[in-house]
Amino acid sequence: ERPTYYFQYDGSVPNEDRVQQVLDWIDLPQNSRPVFITLYFSDANSRGHLYGSEIAEMDAVIQELDGHIGMLIEGLDERDVLDKVNIIITSDHGMTGLSRDRVIFLDDYIDVFSDSIRMIAWTPVAMILPLEDWVDSIYNSLNGVHPNMAVYKKDDIPERLHFSNHRRIPPIICIADEGWSITTHSYFNEHPNAYTGGGHGYDPINRSMHGSFIASGPAFKDGLSVNSFLNIHTYNLIAHILALNPTENDGHFDSVSVMLK
Q1: Among residues 160, 199, 213, 220, which is most buried (max CB within 10 A)?
Q2: Domains along the chain with CATH numbers
């Protein structure tokens, strides 16, 4: 079922217009006004990929986003509803710096262009689908060959990654260490700007992969800091605030209930 009001995503829409649209929805009569509104800014992700996460250019990006959030807060305050609205600012992942000096060339160890192998994905999680008779051979050729790449058969992937029980997951998974990339010599040489800037998708055990979570409003305790938690719990948190019964999911409200009054 579609939301009552929505737009197809258009990255060209300025952030100021996105904020204004939220405020326009707030201005609707109460019987037409949404009770749940989402707002997305792509800048931290897109420019983080371009620059990396730890350089001066990102300071300006953060300041811009802070200004857009400030526009939203001021608009809510002007409408005298700020103390009635719960606001959650969050992200779905973090970012870490990449370097062309931190690259694993998979074709040093196996023939990635062989008809016996299909590469489903490359970096930072390489997913390899060999012919059934080749699985052991490919695994043995990759396992332990590079100190910054962990190699698993599907059934042996660590349980905490929740990545072993779906039919679309191929038999062999290679996971690069934080900040490392997996590629081939030909792709590396033909793309001189690849593996620079920033990237994500690494093992979530790395704090650089953690997203942000800031919440404020009548439902939330003031001045509370909590330990890192899985962002899959956010859905149950929102459902509880809205007094909705969540559909079946892998999150747990008990994991985040401490932040509510």
Answers
A1: 199
A2: 15-96+206-218 (no CATH), 103-196 (3.30.1360.180)
